[in-house]
Design a protein that fits this description.
The protein is mainly α. Helix content is 48%, strand content 6%. The chain contains six helices and two strands. Helix 2 runs antiparallel to helix 6.
Length: 159
């Protein structure tokens, strides 16, 4: 699932970004700020998963929820993903030993809980983690990114 949103009300900050020439340094700071902001989504997803997880089993979805960099062809785009280790697909080619070695064990069943099946209704925990926190995540990203850029400008690291 992909969610797009637009940041508004940052005119002064956008003018500062136009002044900056070192795009790699700006992207590095943006990735760090995005990772910091997405920790809120990760925490919300872990809280949601903890309500669903069966404490009797060895598998633990909360231990497999991680943050990863996303890929983009656009060099000015920063993507950050929150997901469950092990993915969602298990077939004949899947190395089940690798899945069992994950911190939370083999938790590929998470997608059946998240999206439901024809016989079991969905009990989403990943989608609401972002949907209910978009404004908080946006504010957190703005705070960390602006602070990082302002510090870099003051120290002369970015021109």
């Amino acid at each position: 699932m992909s969610v797009d949103f637009k940041l508004e009300g940052m005119d002064d900050f956008m003018r500062n970004l136009d002044v900056l020439k070192d795009r790699k340094a700006v992207n590095k700071r943006a990735r760090a700020a995005a990772r910091k902001a997405m920790q809120l989504v990760q925490f919300a997803a872990k809280v949601g998963a903890s309500r669903i997880d069966d404490p009797v089993t060895r598998e633990n979805i909360t231990e497999n929820i991680v943050i990863r960099n996303g890929k983009s062809r656009d060099l000015n785009t920063v993507r950050m993903r929150v997901g469950v280790l092990g993915g969602a697909a298990v077939n004949a080619k899947t190395d089940r030993a690798k899945l069992a070695a994950l911190p939370g064990g083999e938790t590929v069943y998470w997608r059946y809980i998240e999206f439901g099946t024809s016989k079991v209704p969905a009990t989403p925990f990943m989608r609401p983690a972002l949907a209910e926190n978009i404004q908080v995540v946006t504010d957190e990203f703005n705070k960390h990114f602006m602070k990082s850029i302002e510090n870099a400008i003051k120290k002369g690291k970015i021109t």
